Amino acid sequence: MTSKEVKLVITTAPSKGKKCVSEVLNRIILKDETAQAEEVVQNVVLVKTSLPSFEAYGLVISAPPSCARKIFPVLGSFPSSDVRAIIDEISELLLKSKVAKFFVNCYVRASDFDCKVLEIGIGLRLKGIAEVDYKNPEKVVHVNVINDTAYVSLMGKDQEKVSVKSLS
Fold first, then answer.
1. 98 Rama class: left (phi>0) / alpha (psi -120 to 50) / beta
2. Dihedral (Cα; 11, 12, 14, 15), 10-degree rounding
3. pLDDT tens, 45-65?
4. Paired residues of 131 in beta bridges
5. Strand partners, 161
6. Mean pLDDT of 13-24
7. Distance from CA of residue 155 to its chain's centroid?
8. What's the CA gap between 31 and 88, in Å, rounded?
9. What are the THUMP domain coordinates in residue numbering (predicted)?
10. HEC letters along the chain
11. Taking Cα atoms as reference points, which of 45, 39, 42 lies closest to residue 7?
12. What angle do CA 86, 92, 93 make, to 5 degrees?
């Protein structure tokens, strides 16, 4: 059995984090009764589970709680102080995924992290290999920096948003 790690970062509607914790757990507990969810900063919930990230994402997005706004499946987490390691890992992830067009969305939820350094570093690292494209990317790299950890997700454009479209 895989150890429980943060597999989802979920943003919530204003002041709905505590309500969202129980609604998200109701979905995840169907497959992992030891799952945990916690509002770590206002309107941001981290979900720890032994399920693979995209399985947990599928359980929540298939019947999303009304309080959820965005759901990010976490592919990796890194100390936010090690920007070089984050750039290396994201660059490697994009190369392995054979992504030709991408962009980086960096969200600082609770930290003094400098997203520009990360975004520029990844762009420079992949110069000549992959193109930064904000209009028609194949994938979007989402980096959620919460306290001292950067959580990385790789998704299609707008796939993180909870909407009626996500139910079709």
1. left
2. -110
3. 999 999 999 999 999 999 999
4. 101
5. 70
6. 94
7. 9
8. 33
9. 54-156
10. CCCCEEEEEEEECCCCHHHHHHHHHHHHCCCCCCCEEEEEECCEEEEEECCCHHHHHHHHHCCCCCCEEEEEECCEEEECCCHHHHHHHHHHHHHHCCCCEEEEEEEEEECCCCHHHHHHHHHHHCCCCCEECCCCCCEEEEEEEECCEEEEEEECCCCCECCHHHHC
11. 45
12. 90
Position 110 confidence tier, pLDDT thresholds 50, 70, 90:
confident
Residue 108: is its pLDDT beyond 90? Answer: yes
Contact residues for 60 (Cβ-Cβ < 8 A; gap 6+): 8, 10, 24, 27, 28, 47, 68, 71
Which domains are assigned to the chain? Answer: 5-73 (3.30.70.1650), 76-155 (3.30.2130.30)
Closest CA relative to residue 47, chosen from 112, 57, 147, 69: 57
**Which among 20, 13, 15 has a CA at the least distance from the CA of 37?**
20
Pair 115, 126: CB distance under 8 Å: no
Which of 54, 61, 24 minimizes the C-alpha distance to 39? 24
